[in-house]
Amino acid sequence: MKRLTISTLLAVTLLSGCSSTDEIVPDIPPSELYATAQQALQKGSWITAIERLETLDSRYPFGAYSEQVQLDLIYAYYKNDDLALAEATIDRFNRLNPAHEKADWVLYMRGLTNMAQDRSFLHDLFNIDRHDRDPEPSRRAFRDFKRLLERYPNSLYASDAKARMVFLKNRLADYELAAADYYIRREAWVAAINRAQQLQRHYPDTQAARQSLALMETAYQELGLQQPLEHTRELMALNPQ
């Protein structure tokens, strides 16, 4: 059997992810249209659900279902990996409903959407660990979850947000560690020390912070700085990896 190439896998995935019927959504009452959208959501038929919900949103933008349609669209876009559309719908919903009773859920979904942007299809497919890729989406997600806990400490989503913040903190710390290691390999000793200190300052309770001490030890040794070298070794003894 022929081996699948990466380009073939990408093509298959893009086709399956973007496949949609050319069916025209029937002109039926909004209650029936909403019911079919809900059925599609419950079945996990995200593309069908999105078609129905978008039709409702365009045909009846100020109807009885308008707010819930937008909330459902946020969820369906997220599940279908249409992350830019999910983010745009979140922005629109917040603009139109600044004090909505489900504002905590919308903020939680913003965190999930940003978090999902910090992944790659190929990385997931081949289980590739790339801590050195730009973590800006993770930074935004961390801020979203932090804001959720500050504004809505009793939210149903607070517990999950806390757990995700731990994961994100480690993700961001690993990125800083990768940057410090890069400077070590380039023999940029001062830059490596600065990056390691930044990591230890912002993410002190992570494994990456402990690992960065070894990089600092190398840099101080190369620079011939005896006093900070001894201090770093003391810290390494107190914080074994």
Automatic annotation (TrEMBL):
Main location as per UniProt: membrane
CDD domains per the UniProt record, alphabetical: BamD
Gene3D superfamilies, A to Z: Tetratricopeptide repeat domain
Domain of life: Bacteria
Membrane topology label: Lipid-anchor
Subcellular location, record wording: Cell outer membrane
Domain (Outer membrane lipoprotein BamD-like): residue spans on this chain: 27-232
Keyword Transmembrane part of the UniProt annotation: no
Keywords, comma-separated and alphabetical: Cell outer membrane, Lipoprotein, Membrane, Palmitate, Signal
Subunit note: Part of the Bam complex.
Function per UniProt: Part of the outer membrane protein assembly complex, which is involved in assembly and insertion of beta-barrel proteins into the outer membrane.
Alphabetical list of NCBIfam families matching this protein: OM_YfiO
Family statement drawn from the similarity comment of this UniProt entry: Belongs to the BamD family.
Protein name: Outer membrane protein assembly factor BamD
Organism expressing this protein natively: Photobacterium atrarenae
Originating gene: bamD
